[in-house]
Input
Amino acid sequence: MSLPRHTITFDSAPPQFRYAKSYTAIASGIPSSLNPILRYLLLAPLIHAWCVFAWVQHFVTDREGGGPFGRVAVGHNDFAGIGTGIYGNGNGNGNKGGDGNEGGGGGGGEVRRTYIYSEADALVDWRDVESHAAAAVENGFRDVRLEKFEGSMHVAHARADEGRYWRVVRETWEGV
Output
C-alpha cells in the first residue's frame, strides 16, 4: 500500500548533527530565570555531556548511518531504501504513477516539496537544508523549491513575513 499523493513543506528542517547547534537547541529550553549556579554549573555540563555522547555516536560509532538526524534526513530522500512503509510504500517502488517527484528516490506519492529556511536560524544550519534539497534533486525529486527568508529565526518565518510564508505554503499545496 502506498501513501496518497501529498506535498511536504520543511520549515527549518531537516538538520544534521552539529555540536554547537545541538547545545543551543537544548539550552534554549532552560528558563533564563533559573538560578545561574544551577544553570551554568550543573545543567550546562550535563548538556555538554549529552552533546559529546551524540557526537561520539554520530561521528565514531555510527558513521555509515549518519546518526539519528542523518538517518531521518536520508529517509526523506530515499523512500525505496527505507522499506518500512513509514517514509514510502515499503516495497521499493517509490512513487510510481503521477506527476512531480516520482524519479529515483521515489516519494511514496509525494508530488512536490518546499524548504523554508533562513541563515539566521540558530538551531538548523541553512547549508544542511540546501544540501538536503540538492540530494532530493539528485535522487530524482523534480519539484523541489527552496524559499530562503532573511533574518528569521528557527520556525519563525511566518512571524517574520506572514504573507510570504503562507503564500509559499499555499503555492506548494496547489502546485503554483
User: Anything to note?
Assistant: The chain has two domains: 1-15+69-176, 18-65. The radius of gyration is 18 Å. The chain has a mean pLDDT of 80. The CA atoms of residues 27 and 47 lie 7 Å apart.
